[in-house]
């Protein structure tokens, strides 16, 4: 009887998949433990990659941190805020929808990690100017999206007596503060309180 050969296993070469896996692991670790408290060794173990593989995609820990901010944190703000503000019936309606959706999600999952942008901004803004600038750019785009939508509402005659830039700044600051409080208290109730205040007309001149 001829010897049965084991099937030859083809080596899978998926560099983009590996890169995304590293980003997945880093994003979660930076939110749960913080950037500074997470070592490259922690990330290699969690992602199941070698040091050579990690450094092939991200030459330094800072490069990985910048990629997480640019590709994951900014994308989260885009999905959670910018897209909803654009698609909502009005700026105020969009803001209310975001606060409600985030509060509901936090209540379902039973814990609060906080706002990814807020968490990294608190930790990294004073530590490194490059981090600070890219984080500030995300905050700026977030405020601009809300302000621009408020201007469209004013042009349509559905909103008046509101400074769009002040409303946007108040909304972003309120959400950031509410998320920090929710994280500290492990309770999403403050998001609902703030949403009600904004819906009631806060931010008018």
Brief summary:
With 205 residues, the protein is mainly α.
Q: If you had to describe this structure to a student in words, what would you say it looks like?
A:
72% of the residues lie in helices and 0% in strands. The chain has nine helices and no strands. α6 crosses α7 and α7 crosses α8. The longest helix is centred in the middle third of the chain and has 27 residues, at 61-87. The N and C termini lie far apart (90 Å). Residues 1-11 have low confidence and may be disordered.
List the helices and strands and how they pair.
Blueprint: H1 15-32, H2 40-47, H3 51-57, H4 61-87, H5 91-109, H6 116-124, H7 129-155, H8 164-185, H9 189-199
């Amino acid at each position: 009887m001829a010897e049965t050969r084991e099937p030859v296993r083809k080596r899978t070469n998926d560099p983009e998949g590996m890169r995304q896996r590293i980003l997945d692991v880093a994003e979660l670790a930076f939110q749960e433990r913080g950037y500074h408290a997470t070592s490259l060794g922690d990330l290699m173990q969690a992602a199941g990659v070698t040091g050579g593989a990690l450094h092939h995609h991200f030459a330094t820990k800072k490069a990985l941190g910048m990629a997480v901010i640019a590709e994951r944190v900014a994308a989260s703000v885009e999905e959670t805020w910018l897209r909803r503000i654009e698609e909502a019936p009005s700026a105020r309606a969009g803001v209310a929808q975001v606060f409600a959706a985030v509060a509901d999600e936090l209540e379902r999952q039973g814990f609060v990690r906080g706002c990814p942008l807020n968490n990294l901004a608190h930790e990294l803004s004073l530590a490194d100017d490059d981090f600070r600038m890219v984080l500030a750019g995300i905050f700026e785009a977030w405020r601009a999206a809300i302000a621009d939508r408020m201007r469209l509402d004013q042009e349509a005659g559905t909103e008046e007596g509101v400074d769009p830039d002040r409303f946007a700044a108040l909304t972003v600051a309120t959400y950031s503060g509410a998320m920090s409080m929710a994280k500290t208290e492990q309770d999403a109730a403050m998001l609902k309180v703030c949403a009600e205040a904004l819906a009631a007309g806060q931010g008018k001149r």
